[in-house]
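Q: A reviewer asked whether we had any structural model of the full assembly, not just the individual parts. We don't, so I'm hoping you can provide one. Inputs are below.
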Amino acid sequence: MKLNTVNSPCEDCAFHNTAQLKRLGVSVKNADYVVALAGNPNTGKSTVFNALTGLRQHTGNWPGKTVVRAEGGFLYGEKQYKIVDLPGTYSLLSTSEDEEVARNFILFGRPDVTIIVVDASRLERNLNLVLQVLEITDKSVLCLNLMDEAKRHEIHVDDRTLSKQLGIPVVPTSARNNEGINRLLETVHQVAKNEIVCKPHRIKSLPGKVEKAITKLSAKLQKQYPRLPNTRWIAMRLLDGDPRIIQALEDHEFIPETT
Amino acid sequence: MKSKKEIEDLISEASNLRWEIGNEFHDQLVEGIYADAAKISRKTIDAPNKTGIFSFDRKLDSILTSKRFGFPIMLGILSVVLWLTIEGANYPSGALASLLLDSLYPILKGFSGDLGIPWWIDGFLLDGVYLAVAWVISVMLPPMAIFFPLFTLLEDFGYLPRVAFNLDSLFNKAGAHGKQALTMTMGWGCNAAGVVSTRIIDSPRERLIAIITNNFSLCNGRWPTQILIATIFIGALVPSAFSGLLATGSVIFIALLGVGFMFLTSWLLSRTVLKGQVSTFALELPPYRPPRFWKTLYTSLIDRTMIVLWRAIVFAAPAGAVIWLISNIHIGDLTMANQMINGMDDFGLFIGLNGVILLAYIVAIPANEIVIPTILMLTVANLGITGIAPGEGVMFELETMETGEILKAGGWTLLTGINLMLFSLLHNPCSTTIYTIYKETKSVKWTAVASILPVLMGFIVTFLVTQFWLLLS
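A: Here is a predicted structure for the entire assembly that you could use as a starting point for your response.
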């Protein structure tokens, strides 16, 4: 995986050009790329959203504050980005309304990049959602937010190891102080253009019998839908008896073999 | 396009496999995710001082959410926020009023006189529209500019979820959702915003309860009414050194009464038409975060205060025009306003209010902010008092005590003042909130319930208070 290292003189550095960020507010037409913002409640998704779009989506220190899917846009590297702030959720497995909204957008909306925002001071708990998102989509960037708070509590997170473990780029930020936003933008841009190729982590610690069933069903799905990136995850949902996914199969919501 | 057969094949294969692996799949999957997360964390997180992490937060939580101190602290914070708002808003309010009403208004009048503009255009625009807008700005802007930033600072600090935590068991007893505590506090800013925020409640039944009862949170348009009437009628009961304190106390009493009515109505609804189980939910107590003071100040001023103020202006302008019109169009010997006041006076007095108040509440349906100026203007027009108001149907703002003199001349007593405070709490939501309720519920029936129920309660409560008052005096 290619991670950006800042050794070259400033002029050659991709981050040098971050002055080119143009916040577009709500006006997005003909976006080149769609970016989703996912994450646990109260990790600062809306703050990241505001930093990128220049909008002032209401932020507050309580979980569940974002009740509507907010959309905004920005211009970066001559590309138009549309960014969608999803409701914060702890998981994508159960069936509450906000989890369904977030899950459906990542699954059926097929964003070009998904930014997963996590609380650096509560990383382990946040990873549960990260691992689920990575099963659905492979083009993701981990935004390790609230670094200022982690620092205050003397928690150190090794972002390079984390990036290796998860197989996606990791960008430490402190969105409310506008720190790391430039690097986040550049990384999202590189993932969108396939300059960074992600090899996302797959859930490993499963009993042999379960793993076998998933592999078997996933292979079958893969045969039917060769272009689908997340057959493993769909297999898991089918094995869990998720009615929405069964219905999606019946309604041909997954893109067929060749188009 | 996949054929139907192939898809059926896939689904039946899935159910066969599900049969094979047994019904523990979900748990095993979740366990697998947790195990992986733990593994990754071990490799990447280094926290040398594990026991000390968040110990400050825990200590603070043990006080703020404790059984003994939780409620008194909530009450204390509410009192301080209100007291700062009441005391702090006085001076800028006076300054704005003297600028917009005492200085700018005569200049504009003189201007239009010089230009020879017909009296009815001049009256309609300046005495109607301009004065209504000026009044709303001078009375609404200062308290909002203090209340909203204070509230946002508390929100950013992380206090709101603690309020929800403290109130959870009460909501549970009332058959409502614990997150209703959050939507209730949002309603203290604006009921329409409070109704939208009920989307955080998953269960439709509990969400409906939260929507219907949100109106019992005194909104920002009603705080100034409460403060003014409390100062005139209740603060005046004691020596002036204590009157501010007593006025603050009585406003807090009305706000808490609203909370009481919210619990009562939630309880009644959940026992009758909206029966059902109370759903459980996990409420995360987020870490305390030091608010970024200046940024919060800036954004809450721009995003909240200005948006709410703009809304008030948009509604005040046409309302000012309507008031001017009904006070100047005559039907027979009397103006339209007089006709309507006379028609409603008997019922008004029966419940301890009067016809002027009832008409004012009809005219002011678009925005609670304009209730008091409407009442004053109608009182003057109806009594035919001259020499105070610049003309019939003109909204004006006077020193608080002078306002009191006019109201007393209009037949107001301490009882009328108390009943107005109660009715300001218990009446229909403003038109924006009603529209928002319809948009959120998509139901005419529930919108009607949410709009009419509080007015009926207001009539009953003011009637009972009046009867008791007459019995005791």
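A: Points you may want to mention in the reply: Residues 1-9 of chain A have pLDDT under 50 and may be disordered. Strands of chain A lie at 22-25, 33-39, 70-76, 79-85, 113-119, 140-145, 156-157, 170-172.
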